Amino acid sequence: MSIGVSSFTVHRPSEPSDIRPRSDGEHLAWRPPTSSIPSNNPSTNYTAYNPSMHIAPPNGNANPPNHSTATSSNQLDPSVILPNGEMSLSGISTRAFFIGVVLGISSTITILLLTIYQTRLWRIPFFISSLCLFHFLEYWATAQYNTQYADVSSFLLTSNGPAYNIAHGSAMLECLISHYFFAPSTSPILSTFSTISVIFGIICMVTGQIVRTLAMATAGTNFNHVVQVRRQEGHVLVTGGIYRFLRHPSYFGFFWWGLGSQLVLQNVVCFVGYAVVLWQFFNSRIYREERFLIAFFGDEYISYKSRTIIGIPFIA
Predict the structure, then answer these.
(1) If pLDDT is split at 50, 70 and 90, which confidence band does 1 have?
(2) Domain housing 119
């Protein structure tokens, strides 16, 4: 099972569709061609932008911009937003639509099973709802704070390999088996323990999701789902916000989200499996990533490392 992010980024060329000055970190969203048919409302009449055309500001005193340094390398390839492209608009909208539909259906079933039918099976649609929210937020945070990387793969629906889907499928299967083949304990002590573990699991899931999304927002353009092996221009060491306390908050977030989900499902086997697999994955990934971070930032990262924690047991 594979989930992870890095604080590295490779800048994708942006489309020169606006000549106004831009502040650091500002990215322009892709805009479709505007219609050349005039309308009765002057405010809606636009002219398609031409890099060689001078657009004077309101005071009309500016000189024409110099485009002599512009090359084809800094223009966005339009094919990436077409069907089957990396940033396919149809692919992104289709995935968002189905995630929303599944989220709505599973949330409704969760409420019905929990309140009307009062069965422990509410945990399965709750788990599905949580997965939908997780994958939606992965794309949303990328689109909001690292727009240049907001492509189809940002949903992480298929990027983590078959082991990721097998793990979640096994978790739901164990919950079903436990429900139909193992009757709930009538012991007050075990019943209380079960309730406490479910509540604690929900707290872990909520905390983990908030921390992970906050980490993506804080890192902004320095955030990437893939570990980078070379330092890119503009890449800085993020030490503010949530990174002031946690060295790898996105890893912390998913680790505890994963364990919390198994507490909610009341899974024993999958809880142990999730704990072992996630720990091994993040331990290996963090060790590899920090080697590059030390190479990139030297003493700055060593100092940062000495005053922060990872928050995953037995990973220093």
Answers:
(1) low
(2) 84-306
